[in-house]
Amino acid sequence: MATMGFRPYPGPIADRITVLPEAATQSFVQGDLVIISSGKVAVATDDDDVFGVALHDASGTTDTDVFVYTIHASDKFIAEASTTTAQTNVGVAYALVMTSGSMAVNPGSTTTAAFYIDSLDPRDGATTGAGGRVIGRFIYTSLDSIGG
């Protein structure tokens, strides 16, 4: 099941949007985390290696223009959580689920922590199952866009 992925919060900053060519055989979807590989956009598979967020689905055609929101350490994002959320998750950094189309924050794992939760989305609050939204930011060391 697809998740919402990652969205700039409260919204995108125009000068952070970059247009780059798509790498071969890509299947990322809007909101998925991406990297730059040999100068082209590819889906991210490691939460220690993130460049930006895809602003639309992959075309599947090499060299097609891809709009990418470049992540900076100060940017906040809203993302779905893959497991139950609670107020105790606030102020803690967690690992990410890196499956294309299902990327999310994993409040069940602090191994390779990449996303710091600043707050639970007030629309959801604590959630007893997957699907609650969290607001936070990426850990500096996981960001390729700033040399992390």
Kindly describe this structure.
The chain has strands at about 5-10, 15-20, 35, 40-45, 50-55, 65-70, 75-80, 95, 105, 115-120, 135-140. By secondary structure, it is mainly β. It folds into two domains: about 10-70; about 75-145, no CATH class. The strands form two sheets. It has a six-stranded antiparallel beta sheet with strand order 1-7-11-10-8-9, with no helix packed on it. Strands 2-6-5-3-4 form a five-stranded antiparallel beta sheet, with no helix packed on it. The termini are far apart. The model has no long low-confidence stretch (mean pLDDT about 90).
Give the DSSP E fraction (strand runs of 2 or more residues). Answer: 35-45%
**Class by alpha and beta content:** mainly beta
Oligomer: single chain
- Summarize the biggest pleated sheet: 6 strands, antiparallel
Query: Which overall shape is indicated by the principal axes computed on the Cα atoms?
Result: elongated
Number of helices: 0
Distance between the termini: 31 Å
Return the domain count: 2
Q: Name the helicity range.
A: under 10%
Write down how many β-strands occur, each being a DSSP E stretch of 2 or more residues.
11
Q: Kindly state the mean pLDDT as a whole number?
A: 89
- Supply Rg: 14 Å
**Could you give the order of the helices and strands?**
EEEEEEEEEEE
- Spatial order of the strands in the main sheet? 1-7-11-10-8-9
- Give start-end ranges of low-pLDDT stretches: none
